[in-house]
């Protein structure tokens, strides 16, 4: 019997990142991920809806439309819940702002602080956590001042805009945590995934969640396909594409050897991986894009096999971090530079992270800049 694979989606677009950015490519997204990125909140956390109301996270359902934030344009936008999940026995921390209700979150949950994402357990008293009051609505650009407070601006808001982004939403400013710390004991918490923007407001605070949860585990959209069925669907999408990319989730969790061998008969095969699974025999003959994550270090065999190493720059002190040091050392090796391209990618094309990348690359020309072209263009 032919091996079958859990496939989340197959689509045709341009490669948005890395060395082959801008090249037409077919993407096969496999289901499954081995990283523990369950960024969760307490059950009674209020989640802001696009309607202007709010619901407790334990009552949020797939299909609910939330008030989200587009980091590329710096605007408030609707974002739709794709998955919800309850987790038991998670470590919890308490965030007590000076003028808002206490928020319960896991230590790795992310919050927008001064334009950068910061973990719960890294928050400090006095940090400014952004709220909807820091952000504008519709197509207005990011600014610190609430536009509805400008003379005459409120009068120009349409009735619909007032309903969607009313006084209660726009009136708040940044919140300063009065105290942050772990709670005793573990308890049930909840997480949600929303698209196209993996951001939402929890108790009025701007937060972030994993943007690939839809590819992490089997769901109603998962299909079980043989290599032949995958190839046939890919050919229907395009007869001109010469490259095909296997991505995830984490594609190497599935035994992809037979799939790669079959697809290589018609395409040049790329693999996008976090590199945590040891390299299987024969994998080295394909183009491997290694995108290491902080949660789990890549296996040495995958580091040796990589054609491209792509790091996401997500915090201001990224280049001083322990996470970055081994890759910087690798990039100074002439042997490594012969077969590996080193790329830096500003998280979600954030301008402040991009500036840090540019300044670093100017001093370290063995590195190159990788932008998420597809997000800049607003295409898939």
What does this 3D model show about the protein?
The protein has ten helices and 21 strands. With 380 residues, the chain is of the alpha/beta class. The chain has two domains: 5-35 and 217-377, TIM Barrel (Alpha-Beta Barrel), CATH 3.20.20.70; 46-209, Hedgehog/Intein (Hint) domain (Endonuclease - Pi-scei, Chain A, domain 1, Beta Complex). The strands form five sheets. It has a nine-stranded mixed β-sheet. The chain has a four-stranded antiparallel β-sheet with strand order 10-9-14-13, with no helix packed on it. The longest helix has 13 residues, at 351-363. The chain is globular and about 60 Å long. Mean pLDDT is 80; it is low at 136-173.
Q: TL;DR of this structure?
A:
With 380 residues, the chain is α/β, with parallel strands linked by helices.
- What name does CATH use for the topology of the largest domain? TIM Barrel
Radius of gyration from the alpha-carbon trace, in angstroms:
22 Å
Name of the CATH class of the largest domain: Alpha Beta
Largest sheet: 9 strands, mixed
- Lateral arrangement of strands in the main beta sheet: 15-1-2-16-17-18-19-20-21
Compute the number of structural domains: 2
Distinct helical segment count: 10
Mean pLDDT: 80
Structural class: alpha/beta
| End-to-end separation | 34 Å
